[in-house]
Each structure stands twice: as C-alpha cells, then as structure tokens.
C-alpha cells in the first residue's frame, strides 16, 4: 500500500553510491499499559480505558483515544473529554515489566541482536537473518503492511529486496507476539534505527511500515519539530529553536557551517545527518540493568517520619524487583529532590554506600533479604538520608528514590560470563571478552520519558531487564553451530554465542566457583596477602601448566563441570599459550586490562 498523502519523493541529495547494508526492525507495543490491563480484565476491552498514575492518564486504549484522551493528560481533563473513561491505577509496574520481559525474550528467539528501549520498544537487527533468507528463493515477495513510498530508483546495493524480507520478518515477529502474548504491536522497518523508529508509528495501531533509504530525508522533512528526533533532547531543541531552527526541514536547510557556530563540529555533523535520516548507531544487545531503582514523587514532605514511611514502602517494592532479578546487590543509592522554597526550584541529590551481601540470601535463582536484613537496610537508608539533609533546619522534599546500583559479580551478574553465554553475542575472542551487553543509553539516546509525577522505576536501566530464567536441567549443553575445523583449532575465533548454557547449568558453575572461592579464601588473612597470592597465580599462568591437563590457576571443579568440547578447546588454548600466545607480561596484565576474560574466570579470586 502506498502512502500518497506523504511527501514521498526520493530525496534530491540521495547518493546511490552509498550502501545500506543493514536491516533494522523497530517494534512498539500498542497502548502498552492499557493492553496489559485489558488482558488481565477482558471486560475493559470494549470500554474507553485510561491508565492512571497519580493525577495523570499515562496512556489509554484506542477506544479512549477516539474521544481525544491523549498520553499524559490530567485525569480531570481526560474525564472532561471522555466522561465514561474507565480508570485503572497503573502505579505498580510489575505486570508491565513482566510483559515487557516476555516480549524481549520472545524476540530473542530469532537469534538476532535485540535492544530493548524502555518498556515497550525493541530494535532488532535482522541483517544476518535477511542475508540467510536471501540465499533461498525470494522471488515475488511482497511487503506486508505499508510501504512509505514506492521506489523511485533501483538502489544498486540491493537494500530494497533486503528490506522486503525484513518486513516479512517483522510481520512474523508481530504475529508471534500476538499469538503467544495477545498483544498487538506496530513495527517500522528500515536500514537504520532512526528511520525504523520514526516510521513505526505511522500506521497505528496493529500495523507496520517500511521505508527505503532513498525516502529517508523526504520523510524526515515532514516532521514538524526537531524534538521528534530521538537523540535530540530538550537542551539541543531549545538551542536550535533559539536560532530559529524549529522543524526538521529547517535543520536540513541550514548550512553545516552555520550549525557549527552553535555546536561542536561533531555535533553539528551529527545533527545534519540525523535531519537527513542518516544514522549508523548499532543495535546493541540488551542485557541486565546496571541498577534497579524506584522513585516516588509527591507535592512536598517535610517530616522525617514521613520520609521514613516513603522509604519503607519503596524498599519493600524494590526488594521484590531484586528478588526477581536474581543478583545480590552490594551498593545502595538514596536520592532526594529538594525544593528550595525561596527560589521555587528543585534539585536532586544522591548518596550511595556499599552494603553487605550477607543481608541477602539466594535460593533457586531468587534473592531474598535475610531476617533483620530489611531493618538493617532501612537504617542504612536513613543514615544516607541524614547525610543529605541537615535535620536542624526545615526541609522540603518532592521526591525520594532508592536504587541498588551494584551487584555481586556472580554468574548471573552483568559483565559475568553468563551474559556472554546466554546471549548470541559476537565477540572477538574468548581470550578477550569485552562487554557488548551495554544497557546504558547508546550514543543515540532513544530513551522514553516518564511522567515526573508518578512512581516509576529507574527507566534509564531498570526497564531493560529481562525476566530471570528459571532453572531447568543440571546437564551441560554446549551447542556449537557452524564452527569450522579452523575455528576449533583457534579458540580466538570462537563465538561465545555458540555456547548456550541453561540457567541451572550456569548456577551450577556459579556455585562451584563460589564454593571453591570460599575454600581458597580460608587461609587468607589480609588484603596484602590476597594480592601476593593473586600474583602467584598469575605467575603459574606465565610458567605454563603445572598439572597434567591444565594450569594450576584453573579451578578444577569448574573445569571438570565443563562439557568435553569446551575442555578440549581450553586445553588446546593452554597448549598454544604455553608456546607463544601467553607470554609472562601479557598474562600479568590480563587481570588488569581484560576484566572479563574466560581465563580469569578460572582463577580463584577473593
Ligand atoms: N508511559 C509512561 N509515561 C509516558 C509515556 C509512556 O508511563 N510519558 C508508559 C505508558 C505506556 C508505555 O509507557 O503504555 C509505552 O509508551 P508509548 O509511548 O509506547 O505509549 P503506548 O504504548 O501506551 O501507546 P502507543 O500505542 O502510542 O505506542
Ligand atoms: Mg507503545
Ligand atoms: Mg513506546
């Protein structure tokens, strides 16, 4: 279907000599919170429904939208335009988060990088899958849903056929989300994230739109405000507006040199590129969040006991989230927003401190607080609060927040080997595993805004959290796909994504490692001694293996639990390393500069 009412001419500046190798899908759930509530209570389907957080309707179903109920409308205004609006409280995000995690997990089954953005959006880079499908007969394929504009040129790089295939994959994904989870979605398909995201809502709800690269800049020129571009935030928008650059077309037309007068050279180029629909930010596989937090905002609280009540409530909810996450927190942050009554302004302040992991216990992958642990946490929270507030003077708070900001480096932690084994991440080498699982905002900040007057989780990272995986079997499975003989001989070519372990297996390694850590810790007395022992271990590596099969630094319990294939690979690797690959100096540096190497994983640590 063609959108003839749009400005669909191919962009005059379009350069056919550029390749458009990627195929990116962006999926957004329709009226997300409202759909989750309608699934819980199907009677709501036939009524106009608003999801209320404090005095705001954060979203509404499409029935309510017909009456003019918009996102983030005041409840009073929403009821004026739609007196029959049924309101459901949406301050508890638990069910939304669970649905969000299910979608994320479902999308992982296509074995492509998936980047979760906020609660209801995901980018999927289907480039490789499209390439695979291209090898099969792909004649006469049609584009499901809408095509932004019919092709005006035949792009020599072959992106049109690739995007057609990608749009079929998007359709399959949307169908699966509907069949398995009962949720309708919209999708945008393009050769980059920017266009995929921006084209996605063109036909709402329950539909999809594909755009070819040659229409990128003409589509962008239809956007009324530069603010619509995801990585252009409030400050940049204000700066642009102050120079009379309001619409995306204004940004396209203003010469680069002029923008360079207001912004750094890099920023100016980036802004120009974005305005033309150009964006080369990668889809980054999402992993576990760096922190898990909750905030509560209110008009004003000026009494300590009330603050304590707020923190108690937040802590209780936060402990549920941590329980589901499955990692033991080791750092706690308290945030306050203080109101300066004289200046009528507010500002945030935070304090954080380490907390003992002994406050928590772990059982079947679920973390719970020990008896008395909650009280201890509350006293830590109030101590941090006392540091932030001078109680001898009056205070006025408009927000309190709590977040666990660091987690014990267990098997299931961010940056641990689990993430590499669980996700299909391409890494350069098992000797040099770098964390590709960055959950922080990418260079392109696509993060969604959250209303300030509601209880929300720490959207920056908490919402990218996939649900904890339930343990299944104890046996190891290490599946190798497409590894050539050369790959096996050279472990540095091994893709960690080839090794798929289920969570129980990972738990097992974790336990083994922790147990053996405990054992190796017993004789240690002081940090100084720890350090010297670590040096000794590294010396063993440098001197090559001292036992028959593996070097002495290797935790044998862990090694024995590995699948044979992996054992053999490691042995081959150690054999090679004793010849040439592992000189003394590089192994000594290994712990410092490559914190996530597989080898390091075998070294008993404190
Ligand atoms: N949300 C929120 N505060 C906002 C915007 C959104 O709490 N300011 C929540 C409610 C939404 C969910 O995030 O259901 C997803 O946001 P979307 O912008 O994708 O909005 P919806 O999914 O509700 O509607 P649409 O059909 O337009 O995507
Ligand atoms: Mg949505
Ligand atoms: Mg959204």
TrEMBL record:
Name of a matching Pfam family: IMS_C
Top-level division of the source organism's lineage: Eukaryota
InterPro entries: DNA/RNA_pol_sf (IPR043502), DNA_pol_Y-fam_lit_finger_sf (IPR036775), DNA_pol_Y-fam_little_finger (IPR017961), Rev_trsase/Diguanyl_cyclase (IPR043128), UmuC (IPR001126)
Transmembrane segment boundaries: none
Feature: compositional bias, Low complexity: 442-459
GO BP of this protein: DNA repair; translesion synthesis
Polar residues composition-biased segments: 576-596
Span list, region Disordered: 442-471, 576-597
GO molecular function: damaged DNA binding; DNA-directed DNA polymerase activity
Record-linked PANTHER family: DNA POLYMERASE IOTA
Protein name: UmuC domain-containing protein
Species the sequence originates in: Leptidea sinapis
């Amino acid at each position: 279907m063609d959108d003839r009412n749009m400005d669909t001419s191919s962009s005059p500046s379009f350069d056919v000599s550029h390749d458009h190798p990627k195929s990116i899908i962006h999926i957004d759930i329709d009226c997300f919170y409202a759909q989750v509530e309608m699934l819980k209570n199907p009677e709501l389907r036939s009524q106009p429904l608003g999801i209320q957080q404090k005095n705001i309707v954060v979203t509404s179903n499409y029935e309510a939208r017909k009456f003019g109920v918009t996102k983030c409308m005041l409840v009073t205004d929403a009821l004026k335009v739609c007196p029959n609006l049924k309101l459901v409280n949406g301050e508890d995000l638990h069910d939304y988060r669970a649905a969000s995690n299910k979608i994320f997990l479902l999308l992982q089954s296509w074995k492509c990088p998936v980047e979760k953005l906020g609660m209801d959006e995901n980018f999927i880079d289907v480039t490789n899958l499209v390439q695979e499908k291209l090898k099969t007969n792909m004649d006469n394929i049609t584009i499901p849903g809408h095509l932004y504009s019919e092709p005006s040129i035949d792009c020599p790089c072959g992106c049109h056929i690739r995007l057609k295939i990608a749009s079929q994959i998007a359709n399959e994904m949307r169908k699966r989300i509907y069949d398995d989870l009962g949720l309708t979605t919209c999708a945008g398909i393009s050769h980059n994230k920017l266009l995929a995201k921006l084209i996605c809502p063109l036909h709402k709800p329950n539909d999809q739109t594909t755009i070819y690269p040659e229409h990128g800049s003409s589509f962008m020129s239809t956007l009324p405000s530069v603010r619509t571009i995801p990585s252009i935030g409030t400050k940049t928008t204000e700066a642009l507006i102050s120079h009379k650059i309001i619409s995306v077309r204004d940004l396209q037309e203003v010469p680069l040199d002029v923008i360079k007068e207001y912004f750094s050279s890099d920023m100016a180029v980036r802004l120009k590129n974005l305005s033309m629909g150009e964006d080369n930010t990668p889809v980054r596989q999402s992993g576990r969040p760096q922190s898990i937090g909750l905030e509560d905002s209110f008009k004003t609280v000026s009494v300590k006991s009330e603050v304590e009540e707020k923190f108690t409530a937040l802590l209780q909810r936060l402990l549920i989230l941590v329980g589901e996450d499955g990692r033991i927190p080791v750092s706690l942050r308290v945030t306050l927003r203080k109101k300066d009554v004289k200046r009528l302004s507010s500002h945030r302040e935070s304090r954080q401190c380490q907390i003992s992991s002994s406050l928590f216990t772990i059982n079947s992958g679920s973390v719970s607080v020990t008896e008395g642990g909650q009280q201890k946490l509350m006293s830590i929270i109030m101590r941090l609060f006392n540091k932030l507030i001078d109680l001898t003077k009056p205070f006025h708070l408009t927000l309190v927040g709590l977040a666990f900001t660091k987690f014990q480096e267990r098997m299931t932690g961010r940056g641990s080997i689990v993430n590499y084994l669980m996700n299909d991440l391409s890494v350069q080498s098992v000797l040099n595993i770098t964390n590709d699982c960055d959950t922080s905002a990418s260079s392109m900040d696509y993060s969604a805004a959250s209303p300030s007057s509601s209880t929300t989780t720490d959207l920056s990272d908490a919402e990218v959290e996939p649900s904890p995986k339930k343990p299944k079997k104890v046996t190891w499975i290490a599946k190798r796909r497409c590894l050539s003989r050369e790959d096996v001989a050279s472990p540095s070519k091994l893709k960690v994504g080839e090794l798929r372990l289920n969570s129980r297996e990972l738990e097992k390694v974790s336990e083994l490692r922790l147990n053996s850590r405990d054992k190796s810790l017993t004789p240690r007395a002081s940090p100084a001694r720890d350090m010297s022992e670590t040096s000794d271990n590294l010396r063993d590596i440098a001197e090559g293996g001292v036992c028959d099969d593996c070097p002495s630094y290797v935790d044998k319990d862990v090694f024995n639990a590995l699948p044979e294939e992996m054992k053999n690979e490691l042995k081959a690797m150690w054999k090679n390393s004793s010849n040439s690959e592992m000189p003394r100096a590089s192994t000594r540096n290994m712990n410092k500069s490559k914190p996530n190497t597989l080898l390091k994983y075998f070294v008993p640590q404190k």
